[in-house]
Amino acid sequence: MAFPARPPGQRLPLKLPEVTAILQGSATIVWLPVGQTSTVCGTMSGVALLPFIILLPFIGALAIWLLPARARSSASLLAGAVAVALTASCLWLYGSVADGTVLRNELTWLPQFGLNLVARMDGLSWLFATMIAGIGGLIVLYAHYYMSPKDSMPRFLAFLLAFKGAMLGIVLSGNLIQIVAFWELTSVFSFLLIGYWHHTSAARDGARMALVITGAGGFALFGGMLLLGHIVGSYDLDVVLAAGDKVRSDPLYTPTLLLILLAAFTKSAQFPFQFWLPRAMAAPTPVSAYLHSATMVKAGVFLLTVFWPVLAGTSTWFWIVTYVGLATLLLGAYSAIFQQDMKGLLAYSTVSHLGLITTLLGMNSQLALVAAVFHIVNHATFKASLFMAAGIIDHEAGTRDIRKLSGLYRYMPATATLAIVASAAMAGVPLLNGFLSKEMFFGETALRNPIPFVDVSLPAVAIVASLFAVTYSLRFVHGVFFGPPPTELDRVPHEPPALMRRPIEILVLICLLVGIIPGLTIGPFLATAVKSVLGPDMPYYSLSVWHGFNWALAMSLVALAGGVILFLLLQKYLARGIEAPPFIGHIVGPRIFERLLILLSVRWAKAAERLLGTRRLQPQLVLLVAVATLAAAIPTLGGIGLLPLPPTTFDPGLALVWVVGMTCAVGAAVQAKYHRLVALMLLGGAGLATSITFVWYSAPDLALTQLLVEVVTTILILLGLRWLPQRLETSEIDPFRRFSLHRLRDLALATIAGGGIALLSYAVMTRDAPDGIARFLLENAYTEGGGRNVVNVILVDFRAFDTFGEITVLGIVALATYALLRRFRPAADSIPRPEQQRVQSAFESQRDDHKEGTILSEFLYVPSVLMRWLFPVIVTFAAFLLLRGHDLPGGGFIAGITLAIGFILQYLAGGTRWTEERLRILPVYWIGTGLLLALVTGAASWLFGYPFLTTSFQYVDVPVLGRVPVASALLFDIGVFILVVGATVLMLIAIAHQSLRSAKRDAQPPGKTAPMIEREKA
Amino acid sequence: MTSTILSLAISTSQLVLGIAMCLSCWRLIKGPRAQDRVLALDSLYLNAMLMLVTFGISTSQTIYFEAALVIGLLSFVATAALAKFLMRGEVIE
Q1: Which candidate, A173, A469, A489, B92, has a CA 20 to 30 Å from the CA of B25?
Q2: Higher pLDDT, A770 or A856
Q3: Is B58 within the bounds of a domain?
Q4: Nearest by CB to A685, which of B28, B70, B85?
Q5: Considering only CB atoms, which chain A residues are within 8 Å of B40?
């Protein structure tokens, strides 16, 4: 990563247009003689920090998550340290982005798809990142005091940090797809945070609603980003940002815009998706203060701001964005007035302020964009502090209901003062930051517009909504802090710990400083942020408190006065304490949402299932076989060429084996429906014939596997047979008697499919094998893989990655089987003990010299001793098969099944209890260990600089055995072995354990379990 | 001479073992009791094992004995499971 020689510390003077030029043109080679893996622009150290800023919160989250649940202070300290490090890094990076430089750190991932991991920072993302990191730090401090000792602090902070990382990921990503990924992560982590108190249904519902709405928006965003990338021809953000004209003139512009707007509107709670935000107030207050004022909902407006140069400027953009924003602004402000819950009031106020920001972004005016960015920052500061104040009041007074609260100023004057100042900022009172950005908003709406509707509606709605804002701010302050002392509280409120108040103090101080001396405080940062969106030709704007008498000031004054008057007028109505706002109270967004959700996920889903699904096995099989037959028939309909007689000689022994095999197979098919046990045994005969054929045609590996699988399958099906319903003891059953149309159809289908497969196999096997990969494998098995058994070398070396995937699937299947069988409840008629056992135990109870289980133990005495003695023999045999597998038939899979049979034999001989008292097999651990061993073996080749699962082999001198070949593939094979043992045993034991449970049920009614235990011990 | 005798003996034994397998198969299908069928399956396995041994001798390859070894060592597990199933109604109690 060598740059052209330059003095240390000097920045590369890269500006936005230059970066894009570099990215698009051949200048790349000239300018950036980069290494193979990453492209870096900007100061070296600063650029190196970017991925660190994104990753650090996730690492911190993982570390905190691993802490014990009681480690409150260490969790807070750790989270605080992460927050301080992040904030410090962001602040330090300001120097690098202040002059309009774009910092880029690109890690090549999938360049052929245009997917590289790009960490990118410009002025706007710096502003957002600093806000996210800084307010995040304050939230951690606040949460340390807010969360109750009963709540798990590490879990909370881990989610919070991970969420912070996802937010930082959105603002610092330089690739469209990467933005989508982090966007979805914020949805997921906000779900976890909102649902943190998962024992309350409000939290669960609110979390689910937020996830569904924002997750759907994320899906739309994915579509939008794909379209955008398609239009521009690159997923790189800088390239996209430079291609605004191309995007706007593209025919796909409208769908792209709609999808991206859908994402932004759902995330930022814009009308008609605003209802999830108030519901999300079920979250702990630090979460509300962070997610629902400073971060999560700001992701939507961030998206609009970032893509403003690309998407804005058209009339579609103007009409949709401005008027959705206006509707949200008005609706949110109106609803906020009538909320009885402090957090509900603040939530609707958030909705309304986000509407204000959206309106500004929709106006297609550069000055409005400046105002929007300014208001984003201002809103984050005053709203976060207000949420935290509300949380303190909730904490100290025990309720958030404005109707119950009153006169708290006398109990907590400091908190009250802070909240009053922040509310004033929210209302847009002069000398506070909210006033400045709101005045810019008024200034923009007051501009004359040639369209009469816009000319009237914009300023009118602006004034009315601001008037409402003054009213609800007054209501908040007056209702909570003034008036008579509260009477309905169960405790006497008091000031919180000083440190809990500190975050609010800091934020309110910022509100004041920005409000009084904007040019000295926020000015340069705002300019940097705006410059990165608008480019160097920025419009003139002035950040100062006094601009003289103008329209904006007049509108502010009207709103302030009108708000106070409205508040006084509403006194009587509000005193009645009605929950919902008048006129629109009966339209409840969440209820409509629930109805839609039920319609979608219950009614329609069920209808689709009725239409397309079936629970009957036969139609499913018919469909499967028919489709497979059709698929095979289409390419072979033109004929499959000559079918010559094979050149091999006739072998009477093998021919007889085949006669046996075919007879057994047909017999099994005939008996399958009415005589399951017979069918099973006949199946064993057919399998045996297949195995012998494998041996005959020089496939000893296959033969071994097949034989072992036959044994295991027999046991498995026998275990299952126990739980199948008994045969109906009706009149004699003749499978050939009833011929119905659908049986004929099934017969025809089966004949066609079976005959077709036979024909195809014959056609394939009588032809010369094409010179495919087989020759390569045969020639290189020993030289490259170090094994003489080609099959095994293929499995553990050439195709080891496939094998790794297969054993993973095997493990998953075993776990799924186990999970399903844990809840398995047998059919009613197979619950009682089998008839044989009942007869035998009835006989035992009649005889004095017999105890329960005597017959079993005495009849099985010799076999069970033999089976136990065989155990070490089988273990040795398994080890033998495993170790020599690389050169001769055998290997991990075969050895694994062998050992599993050994284990099953012990269960067979002694029963579940007896075996598990002596030999505790933990199949799940076996599965995990095997998978891990295979993975570690594969990954070890990275240490030596080779790709995943590269095998090394050499000869080693072992004292007794002499010179033996050792391949690292053996370790991999041992992993396979362990996993196969675990998976096979787990599946078989899962069914076997069913008998224990059933026996318990059987034995419980008489009230004693002793006989059963004796029977097991016998 | 010796090899002629050997190959003749092997062919004959394969034929005879094949016939034995057919007879076992007949019993397997015919029954009449489930116990007869279990015995039939066991003898089928036994004959198959011997068949594999003769095959190994005829090709003078020892690796085919592995399959015979597996049958000899483990095929009885299936028989035992079937027998236990008939006797107690379930395989693992």
Answers
A1: B92
A2: A856
A3: yes
A4: B28
A5: 681
Closest partner residue to B81 (CB to CB) among A714, A859, A898 is: A714
Q: What is the pLDDT of residue A727?
A: 65
d(CA A987, CA A288): 47
CA separation for the pair A346, A361 (Å, rounded): 22
Please give the Cα distance from A846 to A972 (Å, whole number): 57
Are A522 and A514 within 8 A, CB to CB? yes
Amino acid at A9: G
Query: Which residues span the domain enclosing B45?
Result: 2-88
pLDDT score at A11: 37
A603 contacts: CB under 8 Å, gap ≥ 6: none
The answer to whether A684 contacts B78, with C-beta atoms less than 8 Å apart, is yes
- Do the beta carbons of residue B50 and residue B10 sit within 8 Å? no
CA angle at A995 for the pair A989 and A997, rounded to the nearest 5° = 105
Q: What's the number of CA atoms in the CB half-sphere (13 Å) around residue A41?
A: 25
In a domain, B50, yes or no: yes
Q: Measured between CB atoms, does A362 come within 8 Å of chain B? A: no
Domain count of the fold of chain B:
1
Least Cα separation, residue A833 to chain B (angstroms)? 8
Q: CA nearest A128: which of A348, A306, A385, A349?
A: A306
Q: Is residue A622 packed enough to be buried (19+ CB in 10 Å), middle (13-18) or exposed (0-12)? A: middle
Question: B49 to chain A: nearest residue by CA?
Answer: A692
Whether residue A659 lies within 8 A of chain B, CB to CB, comes out as yes
| Alpha carbons A90 and A134: distance in angstroms, whole number | 9
Cβ(A41)–Cβ(A32) under 8 Å? yes
Q: Which one, of A120, A131, A73, A132, lies nearest residue A96 by Cα?
A: A120
pLDDT for A159-168, tens place per residue? 999 999 999 9
A37: pLDDT strictly greater than 50: no
DSSP letters, A294-344, are: ISHHHHHHHHHHHTHHHH-SSHHHIIIIIHHHHHHHHHHHHHHHT-SBHHH
User: A795 vs chain B: nearest CA distance in angstroms?
Assistant: 19
Least confident of A253-257, A949-953, B44-48: A949-953
By three-state DSSP, how is residue A887 classified? coil
Query: A276: closest CA among A354, A162, A338, A373?
Result: A354
Degrees to nearest 5, angle at CA A762 with A759 and A763? 85
Residue B93 within a domain: no
Strand bridging mode A953-958 / A103-110: unpaired
Q: Do B67 and A704 touch (CB under 8 A)?
A: yes
Q: Is residue B29 part of a domain?
A: yes
Q: Among residues 716-735 of chain A, which lie with CB inside 8 Å of chain B?
A: 718-719, 721-722
Instruction: Indicate whether A738 pLDDT > 70.
Output: no
Its pTM stands at 0.69
A863: chain B residues, CB-CB within 8 Å: 80
The Cα A742–Cα A749 span in angstroms is 10
Give the contacts of A781 (CB within 8 A, at least 6 positions apart): A787, A788, A789, A790, A793, A794, A798
DSSP string, B37-80: HHHHHHHHHHHHHHHHHHHHHHHT-TTHHHHHHHHHHHHHHHHH
Average pLDDT of A810-824?
A: 88
pLDDT at A7: 39
User: Which tens digits make up the pLDDT trace of A324-368?
Assistant: 999 999 999 999 998 888 899 999 999 999 999 999 999 988 889
Q: What is the DSSP string of A456-513?
A: HHHHHHHHHHHHHHHHHHHHHHHHHHSSSPPSS-SS---PPPHHHHHHHHHHHHHHHH
Q: Which of A126, A189, A453 is nearest to A318 (CA)?
A: A453
